Amino acid sequence: MQGSDSKLAPAEAAAEEPPAAAPPAWANAAIPAVFVVLWSSAFIAAVLGTDAAPPLLLTFSRFAVAGVLLTVIAVVSRSPWPRGRLLLHVIVAGLLMQAVQFGAFYTAIGAGLPGGVVALIQGFNPVLIALLAGLFLGEKITGRQWLGFVVGGAGVVLAVAGALHFSVGAIVLSFVGLLGLSAGTVYQKRFTQGADVRSSTAVHFIASAPVMGILTLTLEDPKVSDWGAFGGSLAWIVLVNSVGTFLLLNFMLKKQAASRVGTLFFLTPAVTALLAWLVIDQTLSPSAITGLLLGGVGVLLAARK
């Protein structure tokens, strides 16, 4: 009788365990909006950070701290680590999305290019992703989506039209960063679908940190002039922008087409301008408000199934 009870106990226990609850619909709907706000805040943090330290030193510090933090998260949560060819693909995606993108963007901001202008250039990411996704992923772009790209692109331009200060070298660097982000997004979608979000994002930072470390030692004088501003900026960039936003980005890339995820970047210039107004009391111009509205319409058109 006791043996019979012992055989039934595991089955009864399994029956009593509730099934894993799916995320509520409102949570899935909120993820893109949260992503846009958090991603946009990085430009303000980058401006404050590059005022306190050289840009490549800030980039290296971001990757090093975020890499350690995400490694701990991946280990504690027993996240499976990519191996073999998958690991190589994850490293390539990470170098493009992290080292190339932020090394170039932060250097451009450190050279004096306003964060809003960098956001403007990054805002063309959806168009470049759509072109690359069409070529390499076979994703079909409808006429309505292209209309969304055009409307969203117009919103991107209007959002920061009043804040343009041109620097040829910095603008070139910004477009290099844009290319890194777009190519990395498509590469990740194409080659790393089997990778776990937590461990793969950790690998992104672990692979990118040494590259930035070598660059800051060879190209900069890696000294911090204001530890308070540097520490606050780094903490925000690491905890919010490096960990939070890239986990959200990788999660969305696993659930949606790359071109649809890319349309969210149309909103970042206008949202960056809005955050600048709220955080550093920078007046929001009528063109920024118009850009925010147009960017929203563009995202709705381009992201709608």
Describe this structure in words.
The chain has 305 residues and is mainly alpha-helical. It is built from 13 helices and no strands. The longest helix has 29 residues. It is globular, with a radius of gyration of 21 Å. The chain starts with a helix and ends with a helix. 49% of the residues are buried. The N terminus is likely disordered.
- Structural class, from secondary structure content? mainly alpha
Major sheet details:
none
Average pLDDT metric: 80
Question: How large, in whole angstroms, is the Cα Rg?
Answer: 21 Å
Give the helix proportion (percent range): over 70%
SSE inventory with pairings:
Layout: H1 2-16, H2 25-52, H3 55-76, H4 84-110, H5 115-122, H6 125-136, H7 143-159, H8 168-191, H9 197-219, H10 227-255, H11 258-262, H12 268-280, H13 286-303
Key attributes of the depicted protein:
305 residues; mainly alpha; 0% strand
Outline of this structure?
The protein has 305 residues and is mostly helical. The chain has helices at residues 2-16, 25-52, 55-76, 84-110, 115-122, 125-136, 143-159, 168-191, 197-219, 227-255, 258-262, 268-280, 286-303. The protein is built from 13 helices and no strands.
